[in-house]
Structures are given as structure tokens and as C-alpha cells.
Amino acid sequence: MQLIPISLAAPGMVLCREVRRSDNPDGPPICGRGVELTASLLERLRRMGVETVFVEGRPVHVEGEATLEEMLAALELRFRKVEADPRMQRLKEICRGLIHKSMGDDCGRQKSGNPADSQGDQVAADIAGDHQQTEQAVGKQ
Amino acid sequence: MPGIINRLSRLSENNRVTVQEMSRLVASDQVLSARVLRLVNSPSYGFYRVATISNAMILLGVDVVKSLALSSSIFEMMERHILGLWEHSLGTGVAANIIARRLGLAECEEISTAALIHDIGKVIIKIKFDDEYRQIQEMVERDGIDAREAELRLLAVDHAEVGEILANSWHLPEKLVEPVTHHHDVAKSGDHQIKTAAVHLADVLVKANGFGSSGDPFVSPIQEIAWERLGMTDELLEEIAGELDEKLVEVRNFSLEMQSSNGG
Fold it and tell me: What is the full DSSP assignment across B235-252?
């Protein structure tokens, strides 16, 4: 999962959290999680004043951000003193799984398909809690 | 600022102080109330958009708001000078909140607050003994020992004890002092062992995640007594670690927002 400014969001990325209006963060979501962004949907979100979105995987490269290999090496290093503790080894494996997930190993990488499909148009209209497309979006992988 | 801290500290000596009195005092200082509200709106509590001190008092209770008011200037120093520790503290507050809610523990907000301030003693060491603070960091890196061990060797006191002294000087309630004092040694805690266990586990989970920097490069084990007192299971551990990982994205964002608002 990555939090990115809307200016860096691109068609094909998949929302992993609901989007709410920044002037009404407690109000109903304006777009459901699992929805694949399209050019027109992005334009709508921008017009509604949305500034940031959570997207699946890590589609935007941030300068200086650790690579998957670096993150896994750091994980090994910080668990070095608890190698003999089975519970801590389990915790290490949980953390390893979370690192892989956050780096988009199993879901949510930016897709290479046609970005300007029409899915997004109906999405903004459907608005709240639209989870139907989650499987669809992930399934496209 | 020190004036109001003294008044707050004096007021908090009196156990019968009312919500209104405390709210009025905190709200009378704009800088202080802004700092407290930023902390109240941090991801550690899961409330957002708490706009006034009196609302914060209602949602979080007098003890929590008082603790945040008294520790807010220490947090500010942490944020400016030891950013990694600030992120570690925020992360531990969030982890403790998740643990407390998942396990249905009483006084969630107190547990989050104790977690938020658990390493406050490290800031005092940095402020009062900067040379030693640097030496401690060098010893940790060079000799591969825990920061706590290095502190004891060099200063004959560790950050947990320094934190205890500070929290007691502020007259914080024992339920907040004990987790600060014993977060590295849960067995030594007395009446508030569950809260101490939650803060201990939160500390370990944030280190395990690699979020922020507590000053210790190595993850320490989850103490058996903490595991038992909390009634933890492997399944719960996995659920809590997963929820924490998601929440930490928000914490990073919160920390960045606070830095940019400080800079601007």
C-alpha cells in the first residue's frame, strides 16, 4: 500500500482504501476500495478536492526509498538477536509477508493494460462502498 | 511555556481537579492547546478532528490530556532533534491502541498514552547529557548491545527510570507511570501489569516492523509474562501486526504533515 498525491496517481492504479472528501472526511466515501483508477475518475477526484489516495502495491518510485531486497536484508538484521526464539521467528515471517505485500508482490502493481477504459466513469457515480470491483481489479493481474 | 507547565503540574497534584479547571488552563495557552490537539488527533487515538480541549477531555479523559499537555514540549524536542524516536513513539502509540482494542482491554486511551510517552526518558538523556547520548549510540553500534545496557553502563540509570522520574515529577497517575518504568521488564510491574504488557508488546511490534528508530537496531523478544498476561495467540499476533502495518502508513503521513507544518 502506498499513499500518493493525486498528481502522481495514474490510470491503472488500484485504490486500496476508500476515498473521502477532504472537506468532509467523516462523510460517506466518494469512491470504494478495489476500484481501478481511470483518467476520467482521476479528473473527477481532483475536481472534488481530493489531495491524496492510498493505492495498492508501490507503483510510485520515491527517491531514496528502500528496495524489496534492502527491506528484507534489514529485516534479517534487526531479528538477528532473537534467532533462537520461535515466537520471534514467527513474527519475523509475519513481517516478511507484510513487506512482500506492501511492495506489491501479490497484488496491486500498476497495470500495463489500456488505462483509459470506461470503468471509472460509472464508479464515481456509484460512489459509496463499491467493493464489487475489487476481485475484478485484482483478478486482472 | 514553563509557567503553564508548572501550573498544570501543580493543578494535577490535586486529584479533585475538575475537567473544567484543567480545560480552562490548557485552553488559555494557544500554543499549548494547539500542541495537545495535534497529539489528540494523531493516529495513536483513532479519533480525528477533535477541535477543542474540552472535547478532548471528554473523549480521552483528564489524565490523558494532562499527560499530553505536560509532555508536549518534550515531544516537540523529539520531533526536532530525534525524528526517528518521534516516529517510533507515534508508532508505539498506534500499536498499543490496536492491541488494547483487539484484546478488549480497559482504558485504551491510557494505554495509548503510556505507549506514546514510553521512551520520553531518552529525550531527557539527549537534552541533559548530549555527549553521553552520543556515546550510547556509538556503543550500541560498535558493541551490538541494547541502548538500555549502554545507558546503564555509562549513566548508571536507563531511559525507563529517567522516564519514571519525569512522569512522577508531573504527578501522572501510576497507571501511566508503571508502563513507562517497566516496559522492558514487565515482570517488575505491579498493579498495572496488563497496561505495561501492552506497551511492551507495542514497542516490540513497532521495532519488528522497522518503523521509526528507537535507538536500538535489534528487536528484543516478547516477554513470556507479557504474552500470558495479555492472553495473546499466534493468530492475534498476525492480525495485530497486519493492522499495525496498514496504520503505520498513516503515521508516516501524520509525521510528514507535522514536519511540514513546523517548517512552514
Answer: HHHHHHHHHHHHHHHHHH
